[in-house]
Amino acid sequence: MDTVQPESPSSTLPRMRIPVGISACLMGMEVRHDKGHKHSRYCTEVLAPYFEFRSLCPEMGAGMPAPRKAMHLVEPDPDSGTEALRLLTTDGERDCTAQMQDFIDRTLESLAPLRGYILMAKSPSCGMERIRVYNAAGNVQRRDASGLFAAALAERYPLMPLEEEGRLNDATLRENFIERVYLYEDWCQMVERGLTAQQLIDFHSRHKFQLLAHCQKTYRELGPMLANMKARPLEDIAGDYIHAVMVAMKKRVSRGAHVNTLQHLAGFLRKDLGEADLALINEQIDAYLREEVPLVVPMTLLRGALRKTDQPYLAQQCYLSPYPDPLGLRNRV
Ligand code: SF4
After folding, report:
1. 104 Cα distance to chain centroid
2. Which atom of ligand 1 is nearest the CA belonging to 120?
3. How far is the CA of 307 from the centre of ligand 1 (A)?
4. pLDDT tens column, 154-189
5. 86, β-bridge pairs
6. Model's pTM, two decimal places?
């Protein structure tokens, strides 16, 4: 796997960056079929201090040169007896499916340490969704496929957060993806330390308000699932649990859901805070609901209030600080 190191980190950066995969053309590498790139400054300048990017070009990795003929996905060969999409040059002269599949088979297992993946959109190899599929005559038959590499990645690592770079321009999707990467990193670290019932309960405790914000239904279901750890093998419970968590975390958090969660948190502080402090917090929650201030405003007030109290259960909530503050993600949602 090709690895590109971002510019040397300064002393203020976190000690450890999270390993995240990325399509190599997004790192500015000239690997596209026209020998160009699709450099993402957001990735290389904003995210690189936090993510240790591991870049990969599946087409180059499969042995294709740059420049090369453009490719697209084509419907399965009716004589092949399989449902597998094919990767063909757009002139139909060359079938690169086996070459790509061989690369996927050789590479996929080495991607297990990654905690997320940023993919280049519209590519028949890297595109995550809405990829066009053509028939043998060159006409578009559907627009709902994934690139061959992206599809294999999603199938092998169903928990891993995946996102297309273009969608990171949307503040809500960007915040959601990065939040999921940090939560998945927390999960993987816990599993690497050795899964225990207590660790699973602790994980659930610190991510509870994130779950409440993302999906109340999942929030209500997972408590009972963890209440009886003796009912099934721990690994089975943990597997079902994290699958449900990652599905829930993919849901966009509405303004109303954030307000509900913030009010829930503020409710815990009622006894500890003076009326003036509580009134200020509630005013800013209302202002957030009216879209007058971003989420960071009531969140910062709540965090400040928490420092004046002794509420370890609240203080551990990742909802209050799901990723490093300097990313500034909650200034825009
Ligand atoms: S989209 Fe993927 S396969 Fe295409 S150039 Fe970029 S990294 Fe390579």
Report:
1. 21
2. 1
3. 47
4. 999 999 999 999 999 999 999 999 999 999 999 999
5. 74
6. 0.93
